[in-house]
Write a structure and sequence with these properties.
Layout: H1 3-16, H2 23-30, H3 34-46, E1 52-55, E2 59-62, H4 79-94, H5 99-108
Antiparallel strand pairs: 1-2
Helix pairs in contact: 2-3, 4-5
Length: 110
């Protein structure tokens, strides 16, 4: 599992947890080493400003007072950028598809 996938999985686990989640459980669910769990938790807390609280003995969770306000950063496109991507997809479809045509197909329905 790549780092970004682990970060998203870790976010889902901590968001759904009502009680602190142990490092052992995180290791099992994320299929990674103990050190990787700690690195990913530090990345969430220090770089993404996630409200991670806890320690290795008791487990980790999101601060209940802050958890509802935290979201992982996403990809935000302006309407002009989205329109440009869809126009590019239309051109690709007319020319026989391409790498982007499959990736952009879900955007057509929105």
């Amino acid at each position: 599992m790549e780092r970004i996938e682990r970060i998203h999985a870790l976010h889902r686990i901590l968001t759904a947890a009502r009680y602190p989640v142990t490092v052992q459980r995180l290791q099992g669910e994320l299929e990674c080493s103990r050190a990787t769990v700690y690195r990913d938790l530090a990345y969430l807390r220090d770089y993404l400003m996630a409200p991670v609280i806890g320690n290795g003995e008791a487990g980790f969770r999101y601060d209940p007072d802050e958890a509802n306000r935290f979201e992982l950063p996403g990809l935000w496109l302006s309407s002009q950028e989205l329109h440009s991507l869809l126009a590019a997809q239309q051109l690709l479809m007319r020319s026989g598809g391409g790498v982007l045509s499959n990736a952009l197909a879900p955007l057509q329905h929105r």
